[in-house]
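Fig. S4 source data, part A: sequence.
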Amino acid sequence: MAVERETADADTLDALRARDEAEVLRLVVVGSVDDGKSTLIGRLLYETGGLFEDQIAQVRRASRLGGELDFSLFTDGLRDEREQRITIDVAYRFFSTHKRHFIIADTPGHEQYTRNMATGASTAELAVILLDARLGVLPQSRRHAAIAGLLGIPRLAVAVNKMDLVGHDAAVFDAHTRALGEFASKLGFEEVRYFPVVAPQGDNLVQRSARMDWYRGPTLLEYLESVPVGRRAPQRPFRFPVQSVLRPDASYRGLAGRIVSGRVAVGDAVQVLPSGRRTTIAAIDTFEGALSHAFAPMSVTLRLAEEIDAGRGSVLASPDALPKVAERLEATLVWLSEKPLDVTRGYLVKHGARLASTRIEQVQARVELATLEEKSAPTLQLNDIGRVAMQCHPGLIFDPYATDRATGAFILIDAITNATVAAGTLLGVQSAPAPEALQSRVSAEARAQRLGHAAAVVELGAGRREQAYALEAALFDAGVAAVVVDDARAALACARAGLVALVADELPTSTRQLLADALGARLIDARVAADPLALVRAAIR
């Protein structure tokens, strides 16, 4: 008996070990309101043992379906969600089978929360879109498919739900698959698969449906267990954005980060961007010990053979397949803010570990979601998708999103409020050169010589407008060209024109960092200065 128990324990350990080493599929599930998304996810969790007994008991008590479980209650966790019967926030669900682990991004279907859907889709390798068999392809279905395609999700699974409400009719299923298939064929998916399902009863989710014997394909779970995942990143050229520099003592200097693409080994040649310096990998360190090689998506610390300039925001890459470095770029944006895109305002680009100021030079086109045609537009509104020309400073180190999702994606941030206003993907370098006529022909040195002082930005702090105007008058009397402005973008423009800009507000940390990069010591913090006039005069001499 002891031998049998030991054998059983060993089998259990082997099973658990295999389970821990199984692949992970990250997927996003989207659908319009009332398409049955929450019910489908709840049923998958229930069928695969992804729920605790007390959760099942709680939902059984809360269900009002004559003793049947209301599977949507397993996922509608927030009170507001339950009351409105819609998903509001992105929630991540986890379950496993003996073949694979799954991470589901459960995202809202309501148009108002499209930004949340884009967030959940940004890391997914597969998207599941639900259609209501009675309604077919809705505008929001096209929007979800377009965003999934824009974000480079390679595979799309379309679950045509509520087939019981159309008599399990194969003709209805075929009509919907044709309608969405024609639209999805323009979005660049590697594969689109269709599944006729009834989520509450589980038809074709985990078990094949006897009521739709005309369907010969796999169940949705069988498909999720078999699609290729995470196998492309290690095949791409090596990319390692540096997150931080580790210097625990004088003898150790390591660059910490995650390999987002490709692989690297000790002794490999690498090039550091943007400096362009070349060196070799001296060591690969991890928490568990040193390695001879590593690959995406491992997080490691790399030591270089030479002490060369590389810090947070730098990128280590294969010398024979370098990423692009450019300031003037073309990109696609999903606009997520209720305030329309304003081409006169400054924004920030968060690209990996790099933060850059940016200006949207032009909205080149807005995508008409019904037809995917590009139409001219002066701006982008909430949930619009469009192609833009933008200028960044400093430039970005990137690959086009079509070839590398890790280095081709970014988010756009409002420079004043720090709110995320758009998700973007980089298409490439702007083909047209910058119009020379738009470039200033007056240097900062010439302006300082003419005005008799250097330019500066003075941060006075929130609610200090009266002090700002008093300082402006005092500087004017002292022969200094100064002006009170309302935001950081205006302040930077005034400084570039040679003036001293006074900001009666509290600058966000990221904006302060950008101004410091542009102005150095001439970004003056006068929030607690006893004599701001003396402080400013000393800085601009």
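Fig. S4 source data, part B ends here. The chain is about 25% helix and 30% strand.
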